[in-house]
Amino acid sequence: MPREHKTKRGRREEKKEEKKLLKRKRERGEDEDPRHKKQKSQDPADNVVITGTDNADILLEEEEGVVTERPFYGMLEDEEQEYFRRADELLELNDFPSEEERSLFLANVYREADGKELKIACSQSCSRLMERLILLSTVEQKKKLFEKFAGNFAHLVQHRFASHCCETLFIQSAPVVTEELIADSKKKETKEEDGSESDLSMEGLFLQTLDELEGKMTFLLTDRFASHTLRVLLVILSGQPLKETSTRSLLQSKRKEKISITGLDTSPTELSLNKRSTPSSFQFAVKKIISDTIATMDTSFIRVLATHPTGNPTLQLLLELELTNPTSKKGSNTTEKTIISALLPDDITTEGSESATFVNGILYDPIGSRLLETICTHAPGKLFKQIYRSTFKDRLGGLARNEISSYPTMRVLSRISKEDLEEAVEAIIPQVGGLVQRSRTVVIKTLFERCHARGADTTALTSSLASAYGSEFSTLVLKMACIDDVSSLIAATTPPTTNSPSNPAEETSPPKQPPPTLSPTAPQLHGSLLAQSLLSIPGPPSNLLQTSLLSLSSQTLLALALYQTTTHILQRALQPTESNTPFRRKLINALLFPPPNQEQEPILALSLSPSGSHVLDTLLLSTTTPSSLFSLAERIATTLTCSEPLLRDSFSGRIVWRNWSLDLFKRRRGDWVNKVKASSALVSSQHAFSNSKPQRALGFEQQELDEESVKKEKKHGKSAKVNPTKAGKDKLAKSEEGKSAIQLAREKFAAAKALKTNTSNSSSKGGKGKGIGTGANAGRIGV
Questions:
Q1: Each residue of 86-97: pLDDT tens digit?
Q2: Is 691 helix (H, G, I), strand (E, B) or coil?
Q3: What contacts 408, CB < 8 A, 6 or more positions away?
Q4: Which of 447-451, 563-567, 676-680, 750-754 has the lowest mean pLDDT?
Q5: Which among 571, 551, 469, 563 is positioned nearest to 517, based on CA atoms?
Q6: Of 473, 531, 538, 723, which is least surrounded by CB within 10 A?
Q7: What does pTM read for this prediction?
Q8: 3 state DSSP class of 686
Q9: How many CB atoms lie within 10 A of CB 667?
C-alpha cells in the first residue's frame, strides 16, 4: 500500500519548504527580483537600533501614532556569559570568608559589567545575577545602576527579564529615600562623592525615572510585565509597607521566582513592614500620575480595566491611593474627574442607574469583584452606606452563599455598624448549614470576628454553627477540621517505635506510612482557622470549642497536636487568658499525662515532631504565666531532661531544649524559675489588651486608634511590672497615695531579686540556694 502523506508542522519545516521553493525558482531562472516591492527590508541594520539583549524579541510599540521598535542592546559574548554565570553561582552560595572579600568580589563584578548592564538585565541567563547584585549593592552602587538604566526605563519595564531587575532595584532603593529624608544635614555634608554624584539623591533618581514614564502610564497599565513594575513604583511613592501580605500579593504573582542568597538576612525591616515617610514630591507625583492617567482614559476604558486580568490590580491600587489620599476629593458628585466618579457617575441608590448596573455586574465577576472589595474597604462613609443599602443589605444571605460575591460581602461586614451587623447575622444564619457543608467557613469566621469587635451577641450564631456540625461535642472539632477518619490520623502521626519488639514477626513489618488522604487540604486549613478564631472569642464560641476539645481522648488530642494543620488549634487553645485557667489545666493533663496504657509518650512525641514542638513552646507560656500551673511546667521539664540523648539527636528536640532552657534547669533550678517566669510575664503583657476588650469602633480608623492606645498603655503600664524604669517608678509613685497594689508588687519583686542575688552568691561558693528551687516557693515571687 502507498504511504499516507503526512504534512509536517512547525516553523522549521515551513522554512525548509520555502528554501526548496526558492531553489527550484533559481534553477528555472524565475528569481530575478527576490524581494517583493511592498516587503520591508529584513536587514537588521535598516530597522533595528543596536544598543542591548542577547535573546530579546524585537517587539513593536505604538508611540504617538508612530510605530517604533524597541531597542536591541546587543549580545553578551560566550566568555562574558560564562564569567557572569560563574559569578551568579558564587553570589548565590555566598560562601565568602568575610564581608570584605564579598565586597571586593562585588566591585570586580561591577567592573566587568561596566557598560554591559543593559545586556545583563535583558539576558535570560544573566538577569538573575543583576538581581543578586542589587540585593548586595551599597547605596552608591544602586545609584550608579539608576544612572546606567536612565533613558531606557520605558523599554526595560516592558521586558520579560529586565522588568524583574527594575522591580528589585526600586524595592531595595525605597528605604534609602526614607533614610535620606530623616538623615541629619551634617551627615549629608560629610559624604564623600565624586563630581556630579554629590548632587544626586535617591529621591531625584526616582523622579527622573517617572519623567521617562510620563505619558506612557495608560499603555503600561495593561502590559504583561510593566504593570507589575508600575505597581511597585506606586507603592514606593505612596509610602505603603513593602513586605505586608496584602501589598506583597498585589506586587507580584504566586509564580514569581524568588531570587535568594544563602545566608543573607532577608527578614523584613521596620521600614519595609511599616508605612514609610516619603518626601512631598512623591505625594505630588502620585496625584499627578492618577490625574494624568484618568485624563487620558474615557469611562468605557476604565470599566474595561475593571475586568481586565492585567489592568485590574493596577486599577485597584490607583483607586486605593485616590480614596486614601486625605487631600483628594473622593465623592462621586465632584466636578473633578476621578476614578471613583468614572466608575460610579450617578446615584447608586436609583434602581437601574449606571452605577447600580456596574456594581451588580462586577459583583459576581472573578476579577471585577476584587475592585469592588477595594471600593467597599476604602470608600467614604456616605458612599459606602449607599452601596450597602442599595446592593448588599437585602441580599446578604444569597451573596454570602456565592463563591465570588462572598468576598465583597466580607469587606462590607467589616464596616457596618452593630445594628446592621445584628441584622446581617439573622440573614446569614439560615445559610450556615450550606456554608459548612461546602467548607466555605471564611464567611462564618468573619462574622464571628466582627460580632466580637462590635460587641454583638453570638449566642444564636454559635448554636447554628453547632447544629450544622452535629450535636456531639466529641466530633465537632474533628468535623470542623475536616478529619473524617480518626484512626487514620492517629496512625499517620504515630512515629515508628525505636525499641526492639518482643515478637520477631514484628521486625519484618514495614513502618506505618501516613495515608494520602491526610495531606493538608484547603478545607482543613479553613476549618482550622475557624476553630482558632472561635477559641479567641470569649463567651459561647470559646466555650463550644473548649467543651469539644475536653471530650476528645488523649490519643486523639496528641494526634491533633502532631498534625501540621490541626496543631494550631491546640496552640490557640493553650494561649493563657484571664478565664481559661481551669480549662487549660484539664487540657494539659489530658494531652500530656494520659493513662499508662498509651503507647506514645506525649511529651517526647511532641518534642521530636516539627509540628508538635510548637505546642511545647506554647505550653511553656501557658504553664508559667499563672503560678497555679507552674508545677506542670516543672513536670514537663523533668520529663524532657530524662530524654536528653533523644532530644539532642533531633533537630526539633534541640530547638525545644534551647527554648525551655533545660541546661539552666539542670544546673540552677532557681535561676531557671526566675527566667521562665520573667519571660512569660513579658510575653503575656504584650498580649494582655488584645483579648481583654472587644473593639466597638466604627471602622478601620478607630481600630488603628485603639491599637495606638494599647501601645501607649503597654508602654506606661503593663511593661513597668516586668522591668520598671526609674522614670516609671516616679510617675506611679506620684499618682498613688500611700502604697498601691503596684507598689506592693514592686517591693515583692525587689525582695525576690535580692534573694536571688544572695542565692547565686552562695551557690558560687559551693552552697546551694534555698527557697527558690521548687515551684511552690517560686510561686510567691511577684513577677
A1: 999 999 888 888
A2: coil
A3: 363, 369, 372, 373, 376, 392, 399
A4: 750-754
A5: 563
A6: 723
A7: 0.73
A8: helix
A9: 10
